[in-house]
Amino acid sequence: MRRLIRLGGLTACALGLVAPPSTSARATHTTTLSEVGHLHLLSRHNFTLTEQGSAAGTIAGTLYVRMVAVSSSRVTAEVQIGTRRGTIAASGSGSYRRTDGTASFSGSLSIDSGSGDYADVHGSGLHFSGTIDEAHHDAITVRVSGTVSD
Fold first, then answer.
1. What average pLDDT does this structure show over 8-21?
2. Is 58 exposed, middle or buried (0-12, 13-18, 19+ CB in 10 A)?
3. Is there a contact between 133 and 105 (Cβ–Cβ < 8 Å)?
4. Which of 51, 71, 145, 147 is buried most deeply by CB count within 10 Å?
5. CA neighbor of 138 nearest in space, from 62, 57, 42
6. Looking at residue 26, what is its pLDDT?
7. Strands 61-69 and 48-57, how do they pair?
């Protein structure tokens, strides 16, 4: 019986139905990402804000955000978090609403690349949201959350 099971497994491998066992196979690690950043303005040009600050959460580090208002109700965003162990870069788009000196935004991101310990990281459907305080030199509070894998 064991021999039949073993032969059945080899036959399935030979037919390409399942992958043969590999000593170089790596286990996938999934992490729930939850970051909060308090950023200050680096530059503002027309409808583009570039901000930097500290991020606290799953991957604490320096957070950079470049946000472009592409219409009165939509933004695109490029987000990068850097640590001593590497960087993760993501991009996406979302909705934008401005009321009484404060703007709010919310949307989705996908990971574009990683470096160092994060070189193999990937993820899509990440969520970003936050506010822009126009009265305080366009300071941004941003939250990024979702599931990433490597």
1. 41
2. middle
3. no
4. 51
5. 42
6. 58
7. antiparallel
Higher pLDDT, 97 or 11: 97
CB burial of residue 120 (10 Å; 0-12, 13-18, 19+): exposed
Q: Give the model's confidence band at 9: pLDDT under 50 very low, under 70 low, under 90 confident, else very high.
A: very low
Closest among 67, 75, 58, 57 to 139, alpha carbons compared: 67
Residue 124: name the closest of 95, 90, 82, 77 by CA. 90
- 14 pLDDT band, cuts 50/70/90, is very low
* Predicted structure pTM score: 0.77
For 20, phi and psi rounded to 5 degrees?
Answer: -70, 155
Distance CA 55, CA 38 (A): 7
Residue 114's identity, in one-letter code, is G
Residues near 125 by beta carbon (within 8 Å), at least 6 away in sequence? 108, 110, 146, 147
Q: Is the pLDDT of residue 15 over 50?
A: no
